[in-house]
Amino acid sequence: MSAVVVDGLSMTYRVPVREAGLKAAFRSLVHRRYREVEAVRDLSFEVPAGEVVGLLGPNGAGKTTAMKLMSGLLHPTAGSVEVLGFTPWQRRTPFLKQIALVRGSQPTGGAQELTVLDSLQYQRVLYDLPEAGYHAGLDELAELLELGPLLHRQLRALSLGEKMRAGLALSLLYRPKVLFLDEPTLGLDVSAAAAIRRFLAAYATQTGATIVLTSHYMADVESLCRRLILVDHGRVQYDGPREELAARLSPYKLLRISAPAAVKEDFDGVAEVVATSGVSWDLRVPRDDVASVTSRLLTSLDVVDLAVEEPSLETVLDRAYREGV
Ligand SMILES: Nc1ncnc2c1ncn2[C@@H]1O[C@H](COP(=O)(O)OP(=O)(O)OP(=O)(O)O)[C@@H](O)[C@H]1O
Questions:
Q1: Which helix (H) or strand (E) holds 91?
Q2: DSSP code of 50?
Q3: Atom 28 of ligand 1, nearest CA residue
């Protein structure tokens, strides 16, 4: 069963335009002109219950707009969305109780003067959580997100990484079945980002939640999403397994061998040498030839180590963004 069904979704913003200068400012009071920005165009995809999918694309591709539409913050210009059978922008209570949108740019909503614990208690009242379930959930989240030292601090006094941990606890306290994560590691240092990734991976496995994630950090995508949906100019450019995108965009693999006695001429007519340092050689090999090239090298050279690598996701996406899929 699909938890999220997006069908022919489009969203056009109407943005007021004004030329520079005082005269233009007055003129715009009488005659306001608008221009249209098509943020999302005819987007369609489905996410089965329990899947973690990465919604990727370059800046301005329409990801955040799509996330806002799927979580009911915006009403689309055209098309439909169903999340757990609900139309998000109707914002019905049973829908709101089963989804969460977490944004790295605004990890914690609500009153920033409240302490983390007060905010969690407020969330309990808002979502009508039974006392026992609340305490069990809170203990679990507090442990996983290391919230102990933060509970009695005001939200506004937290660092970015601490805010994200608190924001996740606030959003996950009521155990949403569908989680929209918009750049959850934005601006975090390497270990804070890694901690969030570890937590999300564990949360997804433990709860079987459906997760739609946007991120510009490849580590997030690689550790969490097997399926990628690539959008550009508001349209789906690719929807499928992560590895297949690499195979489609890069017809080569990298063969890394360590052969102390090898010289450059040994590779003539066998594989293209792209880098070498000491006894180690990086070879670019067409995907279909990897097996034959490997066995040729193993017979002709004294190979002490060998590894076959996919091009990095960063390289693959850079190519997809620049040249299309
Ligand atoms: N509230 C708004 N009013 C007008 N235009 C908007 C609004 N929000 C977004 N846009 C425009 O819609 C397009 C898509 O923006 P969106 O934020 O959805 O992209 P994104 O893929 O999330 O980008 P990024 O990776 O930079 O966060 C952009 O051209 C953006 O300028």
A1: none
A2: T
A3: 60
pLDDT at 323: 82
Give the Cα separation of 85 and 83 in Å (integer). Answer: 5
Atom 27 (ligand 1) nearest CA: 59
Which pLDDT score, from 0 to 100, does residue 81 have? Answer: 98
Q: Give the other-Cβ count within 10 Å of 120's Cβ.
A: 22
Q: Which residue is it, tokens 């039974």?
A: 130
Q: How far is CA 176 from CA 204, 208, 211, 286, in A?
A: 11, 10, 10, 45
Q: Which residues line ligand 1 (CB under 6 A)?
A: 13, 15, 37, 39, 57, 59-65
* Angle 52-54-57 from CA coordinates, rounded to 5°: 170
For residue 94, how many other CB atoms are within 10 A of its CB?
Answer: 9
CA of 172: how far to CAs of 124, 137, 298, in Å?
Answer: 11, 9, 52
- Dig out the tokens for 179 from the structure: 């989680």
**1/3 Cα distance (integer angstroms):** 6
ipTM above 0.90, yes or no: yes
Identify the residue whose C-alpha is closest to ligand 1 atom 26.
59
Asked if the model's pLDDT at residue 91 lies above 90, the reply is yes
pTM higher than 0.80:
yes
Q: Provide the token pair at 296.
A: 């040729």
